[in-house]
């Protein structure tokens, strides 16, 4: 579903990503971990077609980035730590806008379904600026699944959420992932990542330095694995 | 660290020589009947205007080339062209002022040429201010190219617009167009001085332009080395 | 929690079954952006009130700054109006882009499978709408304050053409300015030198219409406005990609 070969990303003279090799099979849920500044957000932005690779090959959902970016976008759902929502519009108006931009047929019905899925049906007419951070994040996920994407990218979705909100987000994420979608999620929260993902990759100093699956990790702790990977 | 290429060193010397020669020729050219000595400013005024214009056109072209090729060297060329052009437009404006004062008893005429030069200066300054607010070199180059393109199209339109519409201020039409339309007729000697000045300033432009590009390259190298040291 | 797409998967054989995904047409995307901007602005009225109040304040300042006896007023009206529009316009342009940038919404727009120029046109149209609304309120206010009739079809045409040029270039430049550190102060510095032809032609044409000049005098600046609008919107259309993409 996602194939990345020797990806290099430079900002001017500084190389943030230095030859990343990354492959995700359809239906996998990959947690991308790593210290701050490792380049996780940069990497995700490239997968999301928001940033161009300096060198290397990136293929998402069978299409080549950046050339075939337009085709990729309709199959991609992205949730970042910024809400990407318009505060002056209501929940349903936000979804309606994005729905139109994606050309979704049967939009009104789809909006209702999505709002129900993320548990915001009762607040559909309320303006987004009245929402708590947790609610905004849930709506953001709703926006991301509106067009039924094959691939979902989450960049630090738990940032700024309290316990309750995080639990709710867990539920939503599980539902979203359960549909056979391919998911890549970056996170600082190892416990949650351990709970949700089937595979764990560590991005350190611009390359994927270690990778393990849930099966391999059995018995051992993700935290231990993570620390070892970074020390090595 | 490479030292200056020999050609460039020679060009430096040639540029200085040519400037001295042009000054000599200008000062020794026959004095114009009506305006007197101050008319001689004219030789340099046109020379610098020509250089500035050259830089302006090149900057516009470099914009297009950069946007098409995305090769950062065109961005360096553009910065060099605009810097040189900025300085020479400034000199042109100052010389124009010096000429205007004794000739028409005013420091500034709102004629199309001078005004457009001033507007272009403002566009250049805005260009550098835009670049200063951006850290990422690629984005800086892209935005610079876009703005230079927009400015490059707008300035000529400004020139024509002023020429067509500005009848409110008393424009010394006869005087300001004199340069181009040969309102004061030039004797053969004057013409030689004039064309030599144009030639001299073209050499000076190439010399400064090349030097500035070289400076940009060296700056880049320093940045690269700095990065290596910190890593 | 039920998943809205449960039914879809049962009907089909696999996940990536549809080879062509629904895509919004260019026109639909543009109108979605315009509608979104108008809707949001209607709720908050931030942009609109700021621009309007600023315009009225500028007119007030001009009143005190220039000694406007009846005769001078005639020759100066066009200039005062356009100076007002030029300054107040930057507020709207700045704010419009800042809204997109601040909550990461620009990314949201860029993620949509639409041509980037659709975003440009959408923004131009909504910015134009705001500007025209403000202008259409300023006109009667000025008319009342100075007892001149400004509602002439010719003048309205000039205002339309001039605003199009201003907003066309302004939207492109504000997309750049909003991504720099110096953001708000930068837009007027970038915009004004480049938009001078619009001001020149608009003032000339407006003056012409207000003083009842000959139609031939007015046609020239109007043609220039049209030419400017076409050239710069075409250029902006072509380079907008480079300005918003990374």
Quick structural summary:
The complex is a heterotrimer of chains A (232), B (231) and C (246). With 231 residues, chain B is mainly alpha-helical. Chain B contains seven helices and no strands.
How does this structure look, described?
Chain A is an alpha/beta fold. Chain A contains 9 helices and 10 strands. Chain A has helices spanning about 40-45, 70-75, 90-100, 105-115, 135-145, 165-180, 190-195, 215, 220-230; strands spanning about 1-10, 15-25, 30-35, 55-60, 65, 75-80, 150-155, 180-185, 200-205, 205-215. A 6-stranded mixed β-sheet of chain A has the order 6-7-8-3-9-10, with helices on both faces. In chain A, strand 1 (about 1-10) and strand 2 (about 15-25) form a beta hairpin. The longest helix of chain A has 16 residues, at about 165-180. Chain A starts with a strand and ends with a helix. Chain B is mainly alpha-helical. Chain B is about 80% helix and about 0% strand. Chain B has helices at about 5-30, 40-70, 70-105, 110-130, 135-165, 175-180, 190-230. Mean pLDDT of chain B is about 80; it is low at about 170-185. With about 250 residues, chain C is mainly α. Chain C has helices spanning about 5-10, 25-45, 45-65, 70-100, 105-110, 115-145, 155-175, 185-210, 215-245. The longest helix of chain C is centred in the middle third of the chain and has 33 residues, at about 70-100. At the A-C interface, helix 2, helix 3, helix 4 and helix 6 of A face helix 1, helix 2 and helix 5 of C.
């Amino acid at each position: 579903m996602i194939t990345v070969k020797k990806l290099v990303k430079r900002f001017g003279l500084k190389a943030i990503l230095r030859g990343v090799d990354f492959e995700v099979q359809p239906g996998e849920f990959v947690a991308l971990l790593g210290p701050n500044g490792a380049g996780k957000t940069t990497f995700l932005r490239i997968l999301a077609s928001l940033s161009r690779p300096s060198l290397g090959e990136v293929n998402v959902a069978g299409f080549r980035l950046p050339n075939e970016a337009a085709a990729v976008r309709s199959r991609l759902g992205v949730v970042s730590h910024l809400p990407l929502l318009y505060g002056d519009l209501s929940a349903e108006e936000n979804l309606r806008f994005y729905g139109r931009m994606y050309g979704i047929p049967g939009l009104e019905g789809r909006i209702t379904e999505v709002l129900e899925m993320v548990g915001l049906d009762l607040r559909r007419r309320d303006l987004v600026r009245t929402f708590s951070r947790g609610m905004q994040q849930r709506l953001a996920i709703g926006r991301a699944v509106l067009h039924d994407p094959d691939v979902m990218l989450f960049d630090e979705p738990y940032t700024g959420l309290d316990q309750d909100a995080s639990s709710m987000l867990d539920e939503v994420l599980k539902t979203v992932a359960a549909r056979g979608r391919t998911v890549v999620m970056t996170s600082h929260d190892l416990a949650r990542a351990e709970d949700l993902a089937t595979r764990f990759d560590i991005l350190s100093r611009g390359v994927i330095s270690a990778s393990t699956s849930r099966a391999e990790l059995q018995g051992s702790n993700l935290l231990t694995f993570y620390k070892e990977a970074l020390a090595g | 660290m490479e030292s200056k290429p020999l050609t460039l060193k020679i060009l430096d010397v040639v540029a200085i020589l040519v400037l001295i020669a042009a000054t000599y020729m200008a000062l020794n050219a026959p004095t114009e009947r009506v305006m007197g000595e101050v008319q001689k400013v004219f030789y340099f005024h046109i020379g610098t205007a020509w250089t500035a214009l050259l830089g302006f056109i090149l900057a516009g072209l470099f914009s297009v080339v950069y946007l098409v090729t995305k090769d950062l060297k065109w961005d360096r060329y553009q910065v060099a062209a605009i810097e040189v052009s900025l300085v020479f437009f400034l000199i042109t404006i100052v010389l124009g002022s010096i000429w205007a004062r004794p000739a028409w008893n005013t420091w500034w005429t709102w004629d199309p040429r001078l005004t457009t030069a001033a507007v272009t200066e403002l566009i250049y300054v805005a260009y550098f201010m835009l670049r200063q607010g951006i850290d990422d070199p690629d984005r800086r180059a892209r935005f610079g190219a876009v703005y230079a393109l927009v400015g490059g199209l707008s300035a000529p339109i400004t020139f024509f617009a002023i020429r067509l519409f500005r009848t409110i201020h008393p424009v010394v039409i006869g005087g300001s167009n004199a340069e181009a339309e040969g309102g004061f007729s030039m004797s053969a000697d004057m013409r030689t001085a004039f064309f030599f000045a144009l030639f001299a300033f073209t050499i000076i432009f190439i010399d400064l332009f090349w030097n500035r590009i070289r400076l940009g390259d060296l700056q880049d190298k320093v940045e690269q080395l700095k990065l290596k040291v910190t890593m | 929690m039920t998943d809205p797409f449960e039914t879809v998967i049962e009907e089909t054989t696999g996940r990536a079954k549809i080879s062509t995904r629904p895509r919004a047409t260019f026109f639909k995307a543009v109108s979605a952006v315009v509608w979104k901007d108008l809707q949001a602005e209607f709720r908050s009225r931030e942009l609109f009130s700021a621009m309007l109040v600023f315009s009225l304040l500028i007119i007030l300042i001009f009143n005190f700054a220039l000694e406007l006896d009846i005769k001078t007023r005639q020759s100066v009206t066009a200039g005062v109006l356009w100076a007002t529009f030029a300054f107040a316009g930057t507020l709207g342009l700045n704010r419009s882009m800042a809204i997109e940038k601040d909550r990461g919404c620009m990314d949201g727009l860029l993620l949509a499978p639409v041509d980037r120029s659709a975003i440009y046109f959408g923004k131009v149209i909504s910015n134009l709408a705001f500007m025209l609304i403000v202008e259409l309120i300023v006109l009667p206010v000025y008319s009342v304050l100075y007892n001149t009739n400004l509602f002439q079809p010719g003048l309205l045409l000039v205002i339309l053409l001039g605003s199009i040029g201003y907003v066309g270039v302004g939207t492109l430049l504000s997309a750049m300015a909003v991504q720099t550190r110096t953001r708000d102060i930068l837009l007027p510095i970038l915009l004004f030198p480049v938009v001078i032809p619009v001001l020149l032609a608009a003032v000339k044409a407006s003056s012409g219409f207000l003083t009842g000049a000959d139609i031939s005098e007015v046609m020239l600046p109007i043609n220039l406005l049209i030419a400017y609008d076409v050239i710069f919107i075409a250029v902006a259309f072509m380079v907008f990609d480079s300005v918003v993409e990374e």
